[in-house]
Amino acid sequence: MPSYRLELEIGDLRPGKTPNQVMETAVSSLGHHVDATDITVVAGTPRIVLRFTVPASSAAEEDTAARMAVRSTREAVVQVAGTGRHRLLRRRRGSWLAIG
Question: In what order do the strands lie in the sheet with 45-53?
Fold first, then answer.
């Protein structure tokens, strides 16, 4: 199964929302199996990291499925907290390569 990683910058929480809801929303909205989650801070900006898989098919179809999942996740998370930049990476031969 192709493995992907989403890194999404997180800003201020929306009124009435909790920090736990950010990751819960991200995981539930992704629509694919989530292998791991993490929260990091890079240059003072918090970011959530989700490692997930999509069903195997052609590389183009897999990347499209991953991009659609990221779009759904960003749309859901913005209801809980502000978001910033994101990176989508694909695991290939032991390395993470940016694809969008």
Answer: 34-42, 45-53, 3-13, 81-92, 95-98
Q: How far apart are CA 88 and CA 17, in angstroms?
A: 26
DSSP 99: -
CATH for 3-93, options being 2.60.40.1940, 3.30.930.10, 3.30.70.1710, 3.30.70.330: 3.30.70.1710
Band (pLDDT 50/70/90 cuts) for residue 100 is low
pLDDT digits (tens, 9 = 90+) for 17-48: 999 999 999 999 999 999 999 999 999 999 99
DSSP assignment letter at 1 = -
E strand segments, the chain? 3-13, 34-42, 45-53, 81-92, 95-98
Domain extent listing, the chain = 3-93
Whether residue 52 contacts residue 73, with contact meaning beta carbons closer than 8 Å, is answered with no
